[in-house]
Amino acid sequence: MQSLKKRIALSLFGIAVLSVFIVAAQQAPAPAGQAGGRGGQAGARGGGQAGGARGRGAAAADATPAVTGLTVTGEVQNYVPVTDAMLRKPDPGDWLMIRRDYFASDYSPLNQITKDNVKDLQLVFRSPMHEGGTNQPAPIVHNGVIYLANTGGIIQALDGATGKVIWENHLGGNIAMRGISIYQDKLYLASGNHVIGLDAKKGNKVWDTEIAQGYSNSSGPLIINGKVLEGLGGCTRYQEEKCFMSAYDAQTGKQLWRFYTIATTGNPGAESWGNLPDRNRAGGEMWITGSYDPTLNLTFWGTAQAKPWMTLTRGTEGDGLYANSTIAINPDDGKMKWYFQHAPGEALDLDIVFERVLVDSGGQNWLFTIGKDGILWKLDRKTGKYLGHKETVFQNVWTKFDPKTGKPTYRDDILHETLGKPVDACPTSAGGHNWPATSYNAPAGVIIAPLVQACQVMVPSAANLDGNGSGGGANRSFYEMPGSDGNLGKLAAFDVNSLKEVWSIQQRASFLTAVVSTAGGVAFVGDRNQMFHAVDVKTGKMLWETKLATAVQGFPASYSINGKQYIAVTTGKGGGSPWLVPNTVTPEINPPNEGFALYVFALPDKK
Description:
Layout: H1 4-27, H2 58-63, E1 69-72, H3 84-88, E2 107-108, E3 122-128, E4 140-142, E5 145-150, E6 154-159, E7 165-170, E8 181-183, E9 186-191, E10 194-199, E11 205-210, E12 222-224, E13 227-230, E14 244-249, E15 255-260, E16 282-283, E17 291-293, E18 298-302, E19 306-307, H4 311-314, E20 325-330, E21 335-341, E22 357-361, E23 364-370, E24 375-380, E25 386-391, E26 398-401, E27 408-410, H5 412-415, E28 423-425, E29 439-441, E30 446-452, E31 454-460, E32 474-480, E33 489-495, E34 501-507, E35 516-518, E36 522-526, E37 531-536, E38 542-547, E39 557-561, E40 564-571, H6 577-585, E41 597-602
Parallel strand pairs: 2-35
Antiparallel strand pairs: 1-7, 3-41, 4-5, 5-6, 6-7, 8-9, 9-10, 10-11, 12-13, 13-14, 14-15, 16-19, 17-18, 18-20, 20-21, 22-23, 23-24, 24-25, 26-27, 28-31, 29-30, 30-33, 31-32, 33-34, 35-36, 36-37, 37-38, 39-40, 40-41
């Protein structure tokens, strides 16, 4: 553990260095896919570029005139429309949405690859992707065809056995990388402040609907009963209209309803903002795709923190509903059934917006989520009742949790901030946990989570309620978490019944992909140091690993074609805090700027 003197020195040095980065970043144009200036945004050039030759370097792409429309024409043969029944119970060989299913399990029922033979995995093909920008794709697979979003607004259909491009469409702008959806004969995606429907067979645009002016997206939609549900990013401005999620007719793109995430005067929860005028109530983005329980007919989404980050800069110490909450919504009409606020009055950019994993066990219906504070929450998903929590990494933000309600209490110096006075806290705005999603492995009864072990110092700025608003409003610096022995990355499994940690792997490099676990007892995850790993679900033992061209980042998937199981994963760079924090704490891990690609692995054919 570092001495306090050393930590303070590192923190003050970090503030000085980071201030240079922040000024530089503020001078750069924001990419269209940005989510409130944070997790999952294009941090490097190229993220907002349209066109560019597939697989070329960023410099070449930037010099190429923008190309839009179909650049590779073809048709998916023997296409099978995706029904509601297929979304509720997907074929074992398909991967029809981000995290595979409505329960956000990131679990494949395929079992051809096991802990005994995973060491024999071989590369089947590597498909180059558009270079540059923030590459965090969540490819989907239907009937042997991979649908893949590239940076630069490019979407492709690939043969899942060979990698051959079937069709390619340059939409322009910047597709929300984390999530494509498929339903009936269409693909659905978010791009900037638009929701778009494409013909799944040929790739041409069918409809394009503007959500609202001035917003953005970094994650894609969820399809429920013929409706396209989409959240929003970029809700940092001071204005009368507040952040919302919305639903669209899957066939026409017509907007059907909106649900506003910030409580304003005359609405339930308005008092939680104190005397702050409605105009100055900001934040509450839903920038991670939700989950869905068809039996309850409820969809569950997380909301981000109130803006600006720190209470002093925000102008209120109130709870700020419905920021940093789990919200259960009826997808038919957009009405809220219940909410649970995980971090009332959040003050350190530790939002709890990430995946809501639905688990059925012993006749119980649970919901799990982990936020940047590193707390694993367990709720009854019928009612939102608090059932328990687990601290997955060291945290010193919360001093206690109410044993009945779960409501946490901040340290007093966090709750009552002083202008210009540094606030030292663990974890950081990279996590605990961030967008790299967890996996629920039902046979083992565990949730496997990629975690980040780092701490930060934040310095509050003065409130400016007459300005335009800010997603930040604080200087930040980062340092190693006490007790981590310099290991920024942690991968850990937690028993869903007891919440006890079953095993953990700790390493210097942070994990930058979602975890995918399988019925074969293997979990797959990638990291910043270019390594793609396979571990034993029950013990955490490392079973296999391979080094790829650059950082392994995005959402792996598992699918099958003609009885053969494949594992797909992407490489890339870029993003908000999940890149900024490792850049500061582990600068020696510096993967190449090029090498964006889709890699697909399988076992060798039996002779």
